[in-house]
Amino acid sequence: MATQPRAFLDAKERLLRLPEVKARTGKGTTTIYREMAANTFPKPVPIGGGRVAWRESQIDAWIQARIDAAQTA
Q1: Which architecture does CATH list for 14-72?
Q2: Please, what sign has the CA dihedral across residues 30, 34, 39, 40?
Q3: What does the pLDDT read at residue 9?
Q4: If you average pLDDT over every residue of the chain, what do you get?
Q5: How far apart are the C-alpha atoms of 63 and 60, rounded to whole Å?
């Protein structure tokens, strides 16, 4: 039996482009890239043609971690 590509296995995973990531997080482009460089924000995946997108699950997890941190502070 051949193995399925990971993309097929994660068929329900959405890829978010920068405008949607900004809208969901409330962060600007510069802040997102600065935090990516500091390893405090998820890194995008290449989608071709020099374009990138973020995995929705990683952005959702990042948002939830901020909510959890705020509730325990």
Answers
A1: Orthogonal Bundle (1.10)
A2: negative
A3: 52
A4: 90
A5: 5
